[in-house]
Each structure stands twice: as C-alpha cells, then as structure tokens.
Specification:
The complex is a heterodimer. By secondary structure, chain A is an alpha/beta fold. Chain A has one domain: Rossmann fold (3-Layer(aba) Sandwich). Helices cover 34% and strands 16% of the residues of chain A. Chain A has ten helices and eight strands. In chain A, strands 2-1-3-4-6-5-8-7 form an eight-stranded mixed beta sheet, sandwiched between helices. In chain A, helix 1 crosses helix 7 and helix 5 packs across helix 6. Chain A is globular. The N and C termini of chain A lie far apart (44 Å). By secondary structure, chain B is of the alpha/beta class. Chain B has two domains: 185 residues, Thiamin diphosphate (ThDP)-binding fold, Pyr/PP domains (Rossmann fold, 3-Layer(aba) Sandwich), CATH 3.40.50; 113 residues, Rossmann fold, CATH 3.40.50. In chain B, the strands form three sheets. Chain B has a seven-stranded mixed beta sheet, with helices on both faces. In chain B, helix 6 links the parallel strand 6 and strand 7. The radius of gyration of chain B is 21 Å and the shape is globular. Chain B starts with 8 loop residues before the first strand and ends with a helix. Classes of the chains: A alpha/beta, B alpha/beta. The interface between A and B is large, with 41 and 49 residues. Strand 2 of chain A pairs parallel with strand 9 of chain B, so a sheet runs across the interface.
C-alpha cells in the first residue's frame, strides 16, 4: 500500500490507496483533476455518501475505481445514460460523470446532447486530452487540425468539436472550461457544478504523453503550451472556444453559461403529482 | 382510468399491454425505451401507466441509451425494464453484457420482427433466438422466456422479473409481433397469489464486497447509503477492482455462468402434449407453437399421432427433458418448426444426438406456416 504525501492527507480517505499507483502515465493531467475533484467533493456541503461517480472507458474511465465513492465503471460512451438512470431512480444522489473527450463527445456524443437537452441534474467533467490516450494516441473528434496521431500519420485534417459550444447549443445550463493548470478555478467550478441544479459541463484541458509523442512534444511542452496560450476570460463566448494547434491564438477559458432552468427531475415530479403519485 | 395495479379478474388485452401490466405487478418502476414497431404499444402503455404507480418513464434517444438508463435505474434499486424489436435488440447487445458482468437485474422484452436489417417491421418472426442467447460478445449465460400467447406473455414477464432479481442478471422475454399485437383473454390472479421476488440486499456496510463469492449471487447494495462500493464492467475481483489475474478472472466468469446454469432446474419449463407413443415429436416455441397444436389436432383424425414438445423457457435449454421425450415416442423422429432459417434446431440436434432424425420446417420470416402445409410436411417425414 502506498502512503500519500502529507499534502494529500485531507482527501486520503476518499482515495482507494490500495489501488495506487494509478495506470496514468507520469505527467498525465488526470491526477490533478482527481485531486481537485475530491477536494471539491469534500467541501461540497453534500454528504460524501450521496456522491456517486460514473465513468465509461479510457484513461479517464479509470477515475471511478480510484476514488472511494459509490462508483460505476461502465462501457464505452454510456456513462451519461447510466448516470441518468441512477439519478432518475434516486434523485437525492449527487451524480458526476467523468469521461474523456472520446467517451463523452464521440461514441457518447448522442447521449451528451440529449442529456443536455433534457437539463437533467447531472455533473459532467470532460477531460479533453485531444486524442485517444489509452489505446495508443488515435484521433478524436477534439484532435486539432494539423497534428499527427496514430490514425492520422500525415496530419489530422478534420475539424475539431468545440465542446462548450456544443454543450450550450444542446441546452446545458452550466458550462465552463479550464486547464489542469487552473486548479483554483477548477475547484470553484466543481463546487458550483455540485450546487447547480441542471446539466453542468466542465471541460478540462489536460496534457497527454501519447499526444505529445507523435508531435515532438514532451508532456512538459504541452503544459508550457497551455500556460502560454490559455486566457481566462470573464463571460466568454462559446463561439470563441474553438481550439487551434500551433498558432498563437489564445485558448479561451472561463464560465460560458450559468443559468437556472427547470430540470428533468422537477418536470417528472410535477408529472407524477398530476398522475396522482408522489415522486 | 386505472389508478393502481391491474385488479384481479379477466381482461381482454393485447400481448404488449399485458406485458406492461405484468411488469407493474412484478414491481417494475422504471422504463426506458425507444419507439420501434412492433414493441411501441408496450412503451406507450408504460408512458401512461408508470406515473400512476409512482414509477419513472423516459423516452431515450436510442436503444443503447434505453437499456443503459434501465441498467442505471436498476443499479439504484428500481426494478427496470425496456422493450424493443430486432434492430433495437441488436443495438442493446453490448449493454446486455454489461448487465451480466456488473450483475444488474433487468428485463428486456424483445418483440421480434422479421430481419435482418430493417426487415419486415410489422410482421413477426423468430430470428432473434440465437441473438438472445449469444448476442453479446464474450462468454455469457442468460435466461430466455418464449411465451406463445398474451396470457403466457403476462405470466412470463412476472417470472422474468423474479428470475432476474433472484440471479441478479438481465433476463430476456422473447416474444414476437404475432403474440404482442394479438389480443387474448388475460386472467390476473389475486395479487397475493402472485409470487414476487426481490433481490437480496446487503445487511452490513462494514467490509461489504460487491462481488463476494460466498454465494453464487452476491447481495446487492444501494448507492448513496455509505457502502462505497465499486461496480465494474472489466474483469474484477470480489472488491470490484479490475484484475488480469488468471485465477480471479476464471473465478468470476465461472461464477457468472454457473449462477445461471446451476439454477436451470428451477427455471426450465416445458409443455408436453401427446408425447407417449407419438409417431413424431414436433418441437416448437413461441407463437408458432399455436399452429403446431392446431396441426396436431387435425392430424389425429387422419390417424397421425403428433407429440408436442414446447420449451416455455428456451435457455437454459431443456436437454434432458427433450431426450426423455424422444425416448417415449414410438419412433425417434423429430421435426423442429421455426419462423427463421433454422436456429433452435441446432440445439435440438445436440440434445437428441446423431441417431435421431431431426428435420427442420423453416417458415419464411414474417409468416405463420399454414396448417395444411405443415401437416403435409409431417406426413412426408413419417412416411419417408
């Protein structure tokens, strides 16, 4: 069993330390997301046992197995509908889906847009590392034009998805984006996401060794690139959140939307009252 | 409007509606589905009825979401169901495997239509038999019910929920357009006479293991109650942690298939009619078995004795019962009647062995065999 350094003492009881070390590569951004997520869970004001985590497949999918919460490691792309079932069956749960860009907006893209449309009270953390890391660095729908991947050896030529823009267009009511370097904002954003009633999406830009590997970048180079190009903007426009690689155009971070709308659960409980039963 | 569960009595209902009402009686309180002919009437009935009993209905964005939502609701403790037809059933296969691996109870009603592909949406068939048995990838065991009338559909949906809760695994009710769209007399017995099984729930939080191997079926824990469990779709150990250890992988898959196989005695159910000294044994299942009964009746007047063997539960397959039934016939001759190009016939051949002649009467998917055609076929087999 691995003892965590003193700096993690406050969240040690929320980590399945018997499972350490994680499968994540040294330098991966996922450890930072996990640490910040657990601090936000601890400080959420919601009883720990009410927090439930659901993941799909990929490096980010392993998240649910490292945190000491009720957790479900499901199949590729289906974390959101599984989480919806949990939440609708037991609305008092605080359900968070953590998934990679491939899991959430590629194979799970249909579920993402329809869950957002319904404004179900779910938290979705999309860790975007611009490629399929676990399986060897293939192209993802978030891969920027021009970079090389194992399935785009001559350079990726498809347009990338703009996740905040997609989320807002689909109906999400809280949407933010940070990089793993912005852990203070990430922490505040996660706490807001827990308090928010409705479909909340937080995209985290995260370095991946495999992504750097084919583009002559070390993982440190990717951190440096994020540091150089990320700009925190107040009330940013989601249209401006598109990410280009190898340019000097800033990568926009911030809270793109934060509005209150009736949630799916509220509508269902209204329906049940009408139909003559209590939800 | 009916506000509660369907009261005891005699009703005239379609198979689809009977299945929905049976689910409510069995305790189903979550339904997620995607519209598809010929299963939509079941879904529409659930949309109206579930809220009346305090359940949650949701129309999913596709069949994959439908089954996964239902599994999620089951994970939160609700008895859940989805229903679909061939194309949707194909989309659900991966998630069925997840339910098997994570050990989540679920009832899936497959109202078969003629396939492959879009096929014949409004005509029934039996082409999904093998898919129900083997559709998901990897090693898999499940229980598959094959009702042949609306009443049986009603009874078997309740039984499917019970089996699913008892074994903590997804169960399939394999019906078809012929049965689900046709109306029939439904007897709802007094509710206290209906057996209802609920999954075993963990008593102790301390040291709870979601995949404990003390019994074949580990006790279930609800999320949000301080168990801090991890349910896993990868091969896992007793704690639910992923493993690539040969011994642990073997132990898990052995237990998962054993819990179904070793329960076969409790689950297997067949109907046998006129088997003793029959000239020929006809094996059929589902709606087409009703034609076989009519043919057996007509054959009697022509001096041909047809024995009927009908699995009410297709899998676990009734190997032993079928072998014994063949022995009781006057000659070892079997005809399998299926509305497909030959699926369950392979299991029948495996069960009876090479010494018994097994012929297949394969009806064009989408259509019932005509009694005359089937009778002539049987006469030819007996004569030849």
């Amino acid at each position: 069993m691995i003892r965590l350094p003193p700096v993690y003492r406050d969240i040690e009881n929320l980590i399945r330390t018997e499972r350490l070390p994680t499968i994540w590569c040294p330098g991966c951004g996922l450890g930072i997301v996990m640490k910040v997520f657990l601090r936000a869970v601890k400080d959420s004001g919601i009883p720990i046992e009410k927090h439930v985590i659901v993941t799909g497949i990929g490096c980010t999918g392993r998240f649910s197995g490292y945190v000491r919460l009720d957790g479900y490691h499901t199949i590729h792309g289906r974390a959101i509908p599984f989480a919806m079932g949990l939440k609708l069956a037991k609305p008092e749960l605080e359900v968070t889906v953590v998934g990679g860009d491939g899991d959430i907006v590629s194979i799970g893209g249909n579920h993402f847009i329809h869950a957002a449309r319904r404004n179900i009270d779910l938290n979705v953390i999309v860790v975007n590392n611009f490629n399929y890391g676990m399986t060897g660095g293939q192209s993802a729908p978030t891969t920027p034009i021009g970079v090389k991947t194992s399935t785009a050896p001559y350079g990726h030529y498809e347009e990338a998805l703009n996740i905040p823009y997609l989320a807002i267009a689909s109906g999400a009511t809280y949407v933010a984006r940070w990089s793993v370097l912005h852990h203070v904002q990430m922490y505040e954003s996660f706490k807001k996401m827990f308090r928010h009633r409705g479909f909340a999406v937080v995209e985290i830009l995260s370095p991946c060794l495999l992504f750097g590997f084919r583009n002559n970048m070390s993982v440190i180079d990717i951190y440096m690139e994020l540091r150089r190009r990320c700009r925190v903007v107040k009330n940013p426009r989601a249209e401006d959140a598109y990410i280009e690689w190898g340019s000097d155009k800033p990568i926009i971070l911030g809270e793109f939307i934060h509005v209150e709308k009736p949630t799916l659960e509220q509508k269902i409980s209204e329906l049940l009252r009408k139909a003559g039963a209590a939800y | 409007m009916v506000k509660e569960l369907l009261k005891p009595g005699i009703y005239f209902l379609s198979g689809n509606v009977a299945a929905a009402e049976a689910a409510l009686i069995a305790g189903c309180r979550f339904y997620a589905g995607y519209p598809i002919t010929p299963a939509s009437p079941l879904m529409e009935h659930m949309a109206r009825r579930l809220p009346q009993v305090g359940g949650v209905f949701i129309q999913a964005e596709d069949e994959i979401a439908a089954i996964v939502m239902a599994l999620g609701a089951s994970a939160a403790g609700l008895k859940s169901m989805t229903a679909t037809s061939g194309p949707g059933f194909s989309l659900m296969q991966e998630a069925l495997g997840m339910g098997f691996m994570m050990e989540l109870p679920l009832v899936v009603v497959d109202v078969q239509r003629a396939g492959p592909s879009t096929g014949l949406p409004t005509l029934g068939a039996q082409g999904d038999a093998m898919q129900a048995k083997w559709g998901t990838h990897g090693d898999y065991e499940t229980v598959i019910y094959a009702p042949s009338t609306p009443q049986e559909l009603f009874d078997m949906v309740i039984e499917a929920f019970n089996t699913s809760e008892m074994l903590r695994t997804p169960v399939v009710v394999l019906t078809d357009q012929f049965t689900a769209h046709s109306y029939g007399k439904i007897r709802v017995p007094p509710h206290e006479e209906i057996r209802i099984v609920d999954r075993a729930v963990a008593e102790k939080r301390e040291g709870y293991l979601p995949y404990a191997t003390d019994d074949l079926v580990p006790p279930f824990a609800l999320p949000g109650e301080g168990y801090f469990f991890h349910l896993e779709s990868l091969y896992h150990d007793e704690r639910g942690y992923p493993t690539m250890n040969r011994e642990k992988v073997g132990k898990l898959i052995d237990r998962l298939v054993s819990k179904v196989r070793l329960s076969a005695d409790k689950i297997v159910k067949v109907e046998e009619l006129g088997v003793d000294d029959a000239d020929i044994l006809v094996v059929s299942y589902g709606s087409v078995a009703r034609v076989v009964k009519e043919v057996a009746y007509r054959a009697k007047s022509e001096g041909l004795r047809i024995g009927i063997f009908r699995p009410l539960v297709l899998w676990p397959f009734p190997y032993e019962k079928l072998r014994k039934a063949v022995e009781r016939c006057s000659s070892p001759r079997v005809v399998v009647v299926e509305v497909n190009k030959g699926q369950v016939v392979h299991y029948v051949r495996e069960a009876v062995g090479a010494d018994v002649r097994v012929d297949l009467y394969s009806e064009t998917p989408g259509f019932y065999p005509g009694p005359k055609d089937l009778l002539n076929f049987l006469k030819k087999v007996v004569g030849g």
